[in-house]
Design a protein that fits this description.
31% helix; 147 residues; globular; Aldehyde Oxidoreductase, domain 3; alpha+beta
Amino acid sequence: MAEKKVKNIFIEGAIPPSFIGDSIAKHSSKTEIGAHSIFLGQVRSDIKYGKNVKAIEFTAYNDMANEMVYTIREATFAKYPITCMHIYHSLGNIKVGEICFFVFTSSAHRQAATEACNEVVERIKKEVPIWGKEVFEDETYQWKENK
């Protein structure tokens, strides 16, 4: 029986564009891949309660979150003919305009990559214990509801 390899999906701080670009570039030698689907979650400039959001501070129950993502990942590989999948989520204070969530799926064909990516994003947002606190310009905050 193969040993379960639970990966840490968390990155402290924003996910740099160079990290995303490098992840994509590493797949150019995998010639069985014909499609990639990428989801990038970016902190949006919002006005809530008459206040401007300047950042989201992300926290998580890391061990449980990583276990749950592992389960979602394995179920997705069982359901779709995908070649690979990468998942990263930020922790800490992420400013408006910065990337906080990165899901990258690859397959021989577009439909599998797209459907798998969408399902992973939706399941993580609904099931995984990751929380965001919207921080306003006046330094007050409000816990964010995942949508």
